[in-house]
Design a protein that fits this description.
Helix content: 25-40%
CATH topology of the largest domain: Fructose-1,6-Bisphosphatase, Chain A, domain 1
Order of helices and strands: EEEEHEEHEEEHEEEEEEHHEHEHEEH
Number of helices: 8
CATH class of the largest domain: Alpha Beta
CATH architecture of the largest domain: 2-Layer Sandwich
Radius of gyration: 18 Å
Number of strands: 19
CATH superfamily of the largest domain: Fructose-1,6-Bisphosphatase, subunit A, domain 1
Length: 290
Amino acid sequence: MVRPLKAPHILTLYRKDKMLERVNRPHLEEFFSFGNDLINETRLLVSSLWQKKAVRFELKADKTPVSEVDLRCEELVREKILARFPSHGVAGEELGTHKPDAEFVWTIDPIDGTQNLINRIPTFGTILALQHHGKPLLGWIDHPILGETLRGGPETGTFHNDKPVRITDLESPVLSPNDVIGINNPSTFEHGGHLPVLWKVLKFHPHIRMYYDVYSHSLAILGSLAAHVEYNLKVWDYAASQALVEGAGGVYKELGRDSEPGKPELYHAVFGKRRAVETIAGAILEMRNE
């Protein structure tokens, strides 16, 4: 069931204090409905391949695995998008980028957490997002084996399955012993020399949980984590999470970017409850100035 959109008749998007082209309500509804149908299709595909027990995979040049599930899922998504919206761009983890400068660009990480998929750890997920001039407009995170889907964005609200999600902020900027912070594994911080950030977060707050896949993003969007800190995100990793956390009343704060010639830009961010994000971002930025 698709919830009705809570949006004005004309949706106006802003970026860097400059008004962008307007996206009218019928188009937003069409994109949202299309994305909902598409994520349902990817769930059916991934679930059917999961039943095979043994998933075929190989190692990419960076020594991370890519499976038959990743490839078939991204192929399905790209085919459906380009058939329905030929003027739109697509940026995917496995099959590259098509029309990156288009007004609307869909991003897809077919399986975030492929290693978990291969080892039958069911927290992996499919990530889909739609950007308008580079700003996340709509996002979807689906955990097909867990039966959980997050969908929505700043103008639609965010939904967990069919229930609206609203993040409750901390009562004060001071993290309590019951507040949990999520981080990614050390190897993601190591790239680009960001391990000091990991050590800073570990020392800053005693209650940390380390995750390997997009399940941590879902927990931050649902408010189970006070915030999640992750470095070296690519656009298909973060776009949906930014749209969803903002749609749930939370905050996404970019902490910086790294670029390498010929490679996708890497983003560093913290997102979740507003006061937690502000406190953690302040501690990380203070460390940089020491």
